[in-house]
Amino acid sequence: MKNAAEMSLPMIVMPRRGLLSHKVWLALMMVFIFMALLPLLNLVTPADHPLHVSSYMVALLGKFMCYALAALALDLVWGYTGILSLGHGVFFALGGYAHGMYLMRASAAVGGNTQALPGFMVFLDWKQYPWYWAFTDHFAWAMVLVVCVPGVLAFAFGYFAFRSRIKGVYFSIITQALTFAAMLLFFRNETGFGGNNGFTGFTQILGFDITAPQTRAGLYWATLIILTGSFMLSRAIMGSRLGRVLTAVRDGENRLRFLGYEPLHFKLFIWTLSAIMCGIAGALYVPQVGIINPGEMSTESSIEMVIWVATGGRGTLLGPIIGAGVVNGLKTWFTGAFPEYWLYALGLIFVLTTLFLPQGLVGLARRLWNHHDARSLP
Fold it and tell me: Distance between CA atoms of 268 and 40, rounded to whole angstroms?
């Protein structure tokens, strides 16, 4: 017989720690090593060598990894906590703008004049930087902004939304309205963020030529390391007691509250962490792509993130990374071969995933694997 204390403990199902087998971990390590070696094939092999990897491919894969990090961040709140956000594009863009402010100042100060203004400010006849551009000529301060700006916005928005117990479709609509309002704000020239053109024309980062193959390789490796670290951190969180509570929020928030937990704190933590991860993804994206504009805050961008997660398999951590790579790989091919049909293809992907792959590509792989194991039994 259990005593009264044991009977009062909440029963929350623990996610399986053995979700990734040893074979899967070995495969992931091989993929990591392969991805890490790719920039070397760009640096050490001549352009006519059969193993040469172009600078375009290095930058493209780096961009895909930024998208994968954003998808992983969204999966934490949607896949595990049941909070569908249609506004994560704003956190991605804010991180990009925070880093872009440093890159614009560094590019404008190539001649040694640290107070030189970017071209769009000169065009608008501005005489000095706005107050909120203070200290953005320092890389370290820009990185603080990359973390704090999306994090503070997410914390403030999440606190009032979660305290009011807004959830479901209403929360999704509000997040969509948030990103749309931010996009309209950043489109205005007087905000000091380049208007509809945004930030572009970057020439250097930390004193290095931003277009040099060595710099691109460094940005690629930094993205790969941060994506891997974020994956490991996310897996540690979801395999802990905190992960139990987060999945309980998704599966039965009212029951969790009845058991004595306050979902507000847990939802606010994972929501803010997700926004910070998305901001870091945006900060890594900007120097590799070479531009950031309000278009990254469009509702379409946020919806695309949802499609990445759904296609790969939400609630799996690995699925969103795969989904971001697959969908954006198809997008790259479609926009080159059939640009006018890409949006139709994207909609078809989402419809087919919803109807036939509710657990995404990872779920499909699991079913095939289990079917193979069942057939191999004597």
Answer: 41
User: What pTM did the predictor assign?
Assistant: 0.92
Q: Where a domain ends, among 299, 315, 338?
A: 299
pLDDT number for residue 35: 95
> Among 249, 270, 299, which residue terminates a domain?
299
Q: What is the pLDDT of residue 114?
A: 64
The pLDDT assigned to 304 comes to 95
Domain count, the chain: 2
Q: Which residues contact 171 (CB under 8 A, 6 or more apart)?
A: 83, 84, 85, 161
Instruction: Give the burial string for 7-30 (b: 16+ CB within 10 Å, else e).
Output: eeeeebeebeeeeeeeeeeeeeee
Which positions of the chain have pLDDT values less than 50?
Answer: 1-19, 377
Tokens of 35: 């991805």
Same domain, 45 and 62: no
Tell me if 111 is assigned to some domain: yes
Tell me what pLDDT residue 192 has.
Answer: 92
Residue 227 structural domain? 58-299
Give the H/E segment covering residue 205: strand 204-205
